[in-house]
Write a structure and sequence with these properties.
Strand content: under 5%
Number of helices: 7
Number of strands: 0
Largest sheet: none
Order of helices and strands: HHHHHHH
Length: 131
């Protein structure tokens, strides 16, 4: 009888899997397209995004982990600032005259590709919260 060896994910791979699950749940709530998701993760290839969507236990590079961390922080801040998820999720799509958005929606701003856009969005929301 042959026993198949099932690979047990290490801590880094498990962390990647949990981060991806959070990312896909948040971006689904926000109504993001595949193209939005690719840009939010740093212009990853469509095939990479499709693999990530299967929620594998995978070690993500530092840039992707950092991007997902910003997205999680933005999501948390919005859910603190707004009394219900519908309003919080709507905010992401509404044009915003405040700096740094200058009339674009937060999602348009965040999907410009640079991690700085995610950081600026997080910083803006933290300031709104009084942090």
């Amino acid at each position: 009888m042959q026993v198949s060896a099932t690979k047990i994910p290490n801590a880094e791979e498990r962390k990647g899997q949990v981060a991806l699950k959070a990312f896909f749940n948040i971006t689904q709530e926000w109504g993001c397209s595949s193209a939005d998701r690719q840009k939010l993760l740093g212009e990853v290839a469509r095939s990479t995004l499709n693999n990530y969507a299967k929620l594998p236990a995978v070690r993500l590079n530092r840039d992707v982990i950092e991007r997902i961390s910003y997205i999680m922080g933005i999501y948390k801040a919005l859910n603190i600032l707004y009394p219900n998820r519908e309003l919080a999720n709507r905010w992401v799509h509404q044009p915003n005259q405040a700096l740094p958005f200058n009339g674009t929606s937060a999602l348009e701003f965040m999907t410009r590709g640079s991690i700085i856009h995610l950081a600026e969005t997080r910083r803006y929301l933290d300031a709104q919260r009084g942090w």
